[in-house]
Design goal:
Elements lengths: L3 E7 L3 E3 L2 E4 L9 E11 L12 E2 L5 E5 L2 E11 L6 E4 L4 E11 L12 E6 L2 E3 L10 E8 L15 E5 L3 E8 L9 E3 L7 E9 L7 E2 L35 E2 L10
Antiparallel strand pairs: 1-9, 2-9, 3-8, 4-7, 4-9, 5-7, 6-7, 10-16, 11-15, 12-14, 12-16, 13-14, 17-18
Length: 260
């Protein structure tokens, strides 16, 4: 099954107590949600508390500081299941921004195809650390936050499709047709020399297409009959063929014929 991008949503960057992120339009049960939240203050940024059911991406949060202002960035994911219209992360008053991306066709049991990578650096050249996918058709999701020193720069990693490019946050994705090393994507961001950035690279595993489980009950057995006595008139001995039944569960992508 091919993974597809559904849509995304985001908040503004503003001072607030708690951050509520609207669910992406068209979100359906079984979609994978990748969600991020930034908090920042002069001093030490507060840690937000997520709603139940979210898994933090390993390696997050990142923490970066410039001129005494500390910014922390978390990433989470979950498989959508009867979601409401929004999710609220609770935290003390801070400058914050949140976003969510939804993807369809992701393996709901093992949504991440490889361990995500987390990178930090400074300046206008932002580079994601590459990873190695194990499944053909994995969706690579490249997310970053920069310091927003200038207006968002119109720059994307080679081969990636941009999903949003806002003050402080950016996201893009691409399908990697063949499993293997991704290389290290790069782009020009909005941090000035010496100001920090963080970059996160995820690989989403595609759901298996045509996976079938169950029991196919046996071909028609050989039917035998025994006749005793004297048969004076030719006739026909008919054996009824028992009905063959089968049970099939899963997703069948190509119609076919079962014969008995």
């Amino acid at each position: 099954m091919t993974i597809s991008f559904v849509t995304s949503t985001n908040t503004t960057y503003a001072s607030r107590t708690n951050t509520t992120i609207t669910a992406p339009t068209g979100l359906a049960n079984g979609d994978l949600i990748v969600l991020g939240i930034l908090t920042g203050v002069s001093g030490t940024a507060p840690t937000p508390t997520p709603p139940a059911g979210w898994t933090a991406v390993s390696g997050t949060p990142t923490s970066s500081t410039a001129s005494g202002f500390n910014l922390k960035t978390w990433l989470y994911y979950r498989v959508a299941s009867s979601e409401g219209s929004s999710w609220t992360w609770t935290h003390t008053t801070a400058s914050s921004q949140g976003f969510a991306l939804a993807y369809r066709g992701v393996d709901n049991t093992t949504p991440l195809d490889a361990t995500p990578t987390v990178s930090t650096g400074t300046g206008a050249t932002l580079t994601w650390t590459g990873l190695t996918t194990v499944t053909a058709g994995a969706m690579l999701v490249a997310i970053d936050h920069d310091w927003g020193d200038v207006a968002p720069v119109a720059s994307d990693p080679t081969g990636y499709t941009q999903r949003f490019n806002l003050l402080l946050i950016y996201a893009a994705d691409m399908i990697q047709a063949t499993a293997g090393a991704t290389g290290a994507p790069t782009r020009t961001c909005s941090s000035n020399t010496g100001d920090p950035w963080s970059a996160f690279l995820l690989a989403l595993r595609p759901a298996t297409s045509g996976a079938l489980t169950g029991t196919l009950t046996a071909p028609t057995p050989l039917v035998t009959a025994t006749l005793t006595g004297t048969q004076t008139d030719p006739g026909t001995l008919t054996a009824a063929v028992p009905r063959v039944t089968a049970t099939l569960t899963g997703i069948a992508t190509d119609p076919g014929t079962m014969r008995s």
